[in-house]
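worker-03 picked up job from queue 'complexes'. Input manifest follows; two sequence lines, order preserved.
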Amino acid sequence: GENVEQHPSTLSVQEGDSAVIKCTYSDSASNYFPWYKQELGKRPQLIIDIRSNVGEKKDQRIAVTLNKTAKHFSLHITETQPEDSAVYFCAAAAGGTSYGKLTFGQGTILTVHP
Amino acid sequence: DTEVTQTPKHLVMGMTNKKSLKCEQHMGHRAMYWYKQKAKKPPELMFVYSYEKLSINESVPSRFSPECPNSSLLNLHLHALQPEDSALYLCASSQTVLRGNQPQHFGDGTRLSIL
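worker-03 finished. Artifact:
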């Protein structure tokens, strides 16, 4: 089955700095890669996703890049703010009979210091 | 403004009890999911329903029994649970799984404690 590794497990930055979280996946059939933000005691919230036919996607301060050859994808947050502090999970899903089957990375605790 | 609603928010039950978790969405989504999340861990997929039919069961023990009575509702029936089943149970929905992977939207979860 799919295996997703996520690094780093914790990330501490100063407000205004950039933050980068990296994930690698094992199943070359994976074609959908969402990122979720989960604040303490709250639900995972989809913040951005990318499909395998796209190399990069941006939404304001957030961007995701995908390298299918190397089987890794990254989340980039620019101009970080204290409210960006949360746990971030990457995930991967394949096609066919595995549609909908998200496999998550272990998570990154991001702390943004004012 | 959560569009996936889960009840109850908290549940404490003994190992011999029978209880049910409920999930409801009114976004017209035809795929619904149950996940289990332990503290400081990622969500783990349990079940996927597509058009009210079970399409994926991730080898979940039979003490967890899912049910999808209609396109808006998803239940998880619990019976004879073990202390290690204590966790946050998350429901999610997406438009469909028949035309590729679609964004999944999560509810706030039910925090379950087994005594």
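worker-03 released lock.
Chain B touches chain A through 27 residues (CB under 8 Å).
Chain B is about 0% helix and 55% strand.
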